């Protein structure tokens, strides 16, 4: 390329002498009036782009092009079908068959809910990738070019935009309707797949206070792991029994696990209940949440001699005598106490749910 062929050079000047630059020679108005093809060639000349090698795509209308186009369209179409299948599984189970994914163990289909979601989403993403790879390898020209780097300008912006549009023409999208339709179908189905989980916010909005309540309620019996109820004389002084609410559907509510502790006489004499909770216990029995207030681990160790409940995960310790107040370790809140009494048959029942949320502290929870 000679100096006189280069934008920004004046043929009347001495060879190699430049008097300005492309923005001086080509105003925005002049650039706006030029054809895209001319801008593309002009930008390549100025940028010093040199094409070293070109592997052209299959000739337009040839059998190889049509075969490659069908392969790409099939890949995009399969991606769309997998994405639609994801939406069918998700909406079908959450809107039309709301109990499907939570069905009993006798229903084998319930175990396939999550795997089907993963399989359909994975298939959609895989075939999108396959379609893009096939399109690039089989339908785009492959060229090797070199280019000098320089500062950007108005001239650069105009010619670069023309080059990009020229690249779009080279892809053949404007004339390859089959690929365009299949890609549009895949894109729409993928969009539906990605926003489908948001439908759960409409169908199953967060109602009530699920983080602040448990299965305990007035009159709910305290039962052992095997489902048997408990009377006051069933435990020895100084012992601990893990109990659950006797509610429909089982007694294994994870957030309702409770420690029923029978205090020794000397512990009763030194007992210091938290303010407003002096009547939460019954006789020499107290009941505290088994969920550690630090990280939600099960608090399962009890030392009679020190009256301390220990969390084995991070070594938090809670003093039963002081209303399960944390006295060691990272926990900062006392274990919530369950108010208990006896029913007409002499079995322990809850007087209400916990008056505070169990488990770790979150956003607006106070440290008590």
Automatic annotation (TrEMBL):
Role description: Iron-sulfur subunit of the cytochrome bc1 complex, an essential component of the respiratory electron transport chain required for ATP synthesis. The bc1 complex catalyzes the oxidation of menaquinol and the reduction of cytochrome c in the respiratory chain. The bc1 complex operates through a Q-cycle mechanism that couples electron transfer to generation of the proton gradient that drives ATP synthesis.
Location in the cell: Cell membrane
Family per record: Belongs to the Rieske iron-sulfur protein family.
Designated name of the protein: Cytochrome bc1 complex Rieske iron-sulfur subunit
Gene3D superfamilies linked: Rieske [2Fe-2S] iron-sulphur domain
Membrane topology: Multi-pass membrane protein
Stretch list, region Disordered: 1-33
Chief localisation class: membrane
Listed transmembrane segments: 72-92, 112-136, 183-202
Classification via PROSITE patterns: RIESKE
GO MF annotation list: 2 iron, 2 sulfur cluster binding; metal ion binding; monooxygenase activity; oxidoreductase activity, acting on paired donors, with incorporation or reduction of molecular oxygen
Recorded GO CC terms: plasma membrane
Domain Rieske: 283-349
Coiled-coil intervals: none
Keyword field: 2Fe-2S, Cell membrane, Disulfide bond, Electron transport, Iron, Iron-sulfur, Membrane, Metal-binding, Oxidoreductase, Respiratory chain, Transmembrane, Transmembrane helix, Transport
